[in-house]
Amino acid sequence: MTIQTIPLNKLTVAEGGNPRRSMDAAALEGLAASIKADGLLQNLVVRKAGRKFRIVSGERRYRALSLLAERGDIDKTHPVPVDVRGDLSETDALRLATVENIQREQLAPMDEAEAFATLLSEGASLEDVAAKAGVSVLTVKRRVALASLSDEAKALVREGAFSLSVAEALTLGTHDQQRAVIERLEQGYSFDADALRGMLTGEKPAVSLAIFPMEQYAGTVTADLFADDDNTFFDDAEQFYRLQSEAVEALAAHHREAGAAFVEILTEGYVAWWQYREAEDGEQGGVVIHFKPSGRVEVREGLVKKDVRPSVAEETAEAPSAPKPQPEYSGPVIRMMNAHKSLAVMEALMANPRKAKEVAVINLLNAYDWTGRVRLDAHPALAHFAQADGQPTAYLAIEREAQDVVTALGLGEAKRHAYARPVRGAWEQLLTDTKNPTALYDVVQAFSDAELDQLHLFLTALTFGQGNMDVLDAGDSLFNRVAADLDVAMRDSWVPDEAFLTRRRKDQLEAIAKESGAIARLGRLKDYSKTQLAAALVRHFQRCAESDTAIPEEMRNRANAWLPDAMRFPAVTAEADTPEPESEEAEVEDIEPDTVDPSDFEDAGGFTEAAA
């Protein structure tokens, strides 16, 4: 290092060259007073820029010196000790400025975020930035997430209008959602980080979110009388997500056909937008479609990917600011599994009058843990599958029983109210239609004790199931206790099917293939796409359930015994410590190559060469 002196008026500040965007005026005044009293105790780092010398680090000292010069305390040609660096690239200069700022006085979080994002965009690794800045890798990841905020949100973070925890939670929203939060703040509302996180990740599927034509939706909606689309919600969330997914795929195909440089569909709640920039003149831009778990779709066109290391892109793909871990199962999958479990318990109750009467007594005593439906409100699991394709065997058994009861009560030919809504099954006709009480009384009086008991237990069964359909029930609830006493075996009424398997991630499908023994037939799992692997597993489980003798008995038994932990009573949500699984190669090493049936994969878009 060679120190020399340069006149103050020969120094200049590079526009945007300092990662510190905000400087405390009082601190600057204090630094100026210190320099006036004791002189400049630390040199600046500069590099030659024409006739001037551009400051790489030491801008605060330079501004304090300039303040003294404006006041006449020192001359404009005051000699300033500097270290002239002639071999610094732009990236090295920014890195040096960032490190110098952090080590001397902590950068404001927003300045730190953008400085780190710039370094990573130039190809630096997380470890390099963390080591040179003297912070942890986690701090770099948490800060760089802030670089994806909208400009309006960034400004408010710098002004202190948002706490750091609120700013981090805000990264989970789109720029439009962030602006909406800012508008609410200006109207006098306040948010803490937890409330904001819940608001941004717990959106209901509103009609305003749909990018598909509304005429494609065959279900009902719920709205206030004078509500707009933002306050009108889809009642059938499953159908909404299916139509929205199809519309997203069609939108992606449109952009690909239009010649976009790339088309990405991102489905997590957070997107690291700092890894992209707008295409300049002459550059071919790509498209990012952000399909949030809530169903909201955001499309950004004309983007170019920055030169971020693949490892950095992968490690910063999720928002480290959100302390709540990503749930293992999405809301629609939880509801679907809870509906299956509820139907299975209903069917078991129908075969156990004693237990059904016990449940009835508890309900009539107004015991309440989400299961009490003393008004004989049909359990939502029935409606969940009423109009579904491929209805579960448990639903079909319940509906057959309901049709027999309707006939026995003489309700089959009863005239319904002119404005009554269509019923979705005989079970709904039993519990919703207005009936003549004296006519029913005459019929019921003629029932034998056994027939009356059967009717009582059946009506009880229709009301009982998973208490809260939108969460996994992992506790000591009445539902789980009753299911355990009935020894309900979910695989007697449910087979892992397309509706379940296509909603699993690729890594989850691979785990299922290993746990269920399907890997012995499927071969190398990494050679399948997610769609192919899901279709192959659907066919494998179905053939094993049908006792296909082409599949070895031991393999069928293992497949027929497999059950997701969330399908148990109670649901198991925490992954237990298990030994490391053997590699795929070890598992399939002794498998004959002709044990895989190519027909398993015809619906999955073709049989892969590696799997053959």
UniProtKB/TrEMBL annotation:
Residues 4-102 form the ParB-like N-terminal domain. GO terms for biological process: chromosome segregation. One of its GO terms (cellular component) is chromosome. InterPro entries: Chromosome_partition/occlusion, HTH_ParB/Spo0J, ParB/RepB/Spo0J, ParB/Sulfiredoxin_sf, ParB_N. Pfam families: HTH_ParB, ParB_N. GO terms for molecular function: DNA binding. Gene3D superfamilies: 1.10.10.2830, 3.90.1530.30. Residues 577-603 have a biased composition (Acidic residues). It comes from the Bacteria. Residues 308-331, 573-612 are annotated as: Disordered. PANTHER family: CHROMOSOME 2-PARTITIONING PROTEIN PARB-RELATED (PTHR33375:SF7), CHROMOSOME-PARTITIONING PROTEIN PARB-RELATED (PTHR33375). Belongs to the ParB family. This is ParB-like N-terminal domain-containing protein. It comes from Tistrella mobilis.
